[in-house]
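Deliverable D4.2, example record:
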Amino acid sequence: MHPGLTTIAFRTPTLPPATHTNTWIVGEGELTVVDPASPYEDEQDRLLDTLLDHVRAGETVARLVLTHHHHDHVAGAMKLQEDLAEHGIDAPIQAHAETARLLEGKVVVDAIIDETEQAWGGRRVKPLHTPGHAGGHLVFHDLDDGWMIAGDMVAGIGTILLDPDEGDLEDYLQSLERMKARTPRVLLPSHGPDLTEPQALIGMYAAHRHMRTEQIGDALGTGGSQTALELVPRVYGADFDPRYHRIAARQITTHLLWLRRHGLAELRGEHWTRL
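Output generated by the structure prediction step:
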């Protein structure tokens, strides 16, 4: 669908309802592989075989690039690098400096600098640092055809988790605005199909986060002091699957931290109170 770009979905241990993570092969002649994601041997072999077909056709793999550090995005990176080296191909792993720090001791990477234009096999690609879901998250905007590899900033299936240990709602909202300002033609998420109405979608994502923050603040204001876990059925509904309550509580906590930052909530122990 996009010149010089191939998307392949690989089975990964990602969060449901997603079951696969997209890997992208970008460029012609010198290929860039974005998010060699799968830890499973059969899937790793499938990616290697695909790349070796390109090599036999006279191309090479110039680099492996990571959108961020999460396991379902990087689990095949070291193995792919080692396998390519056995075929005489030196493919450095590249990512944002914060991703490099988070992966220290697991994956050795070269740093990609925000807004520094990249030449990926005939494609002009600009990386944008988009923290919020992860501190070192990058998206990649093709300057000629307008597609944007969006990683885990948006999703074609499921939703985006902002975990309070590594995510930040304010950063996430600002990152969405950075993406929107680039006016991409299509968003390529890590999970699910291409998203073809980027401006409307990004606006919807931001509006949803503001709505959720208001909803959590209202639930907190009418229920007295509560833990994030106690807020789950009030926010997501009484019939919300109990298996996902703890994940939902972590998402709620990220919104509660935003409310506290803006002087609208306080935390004592594990209990939150609306101010």
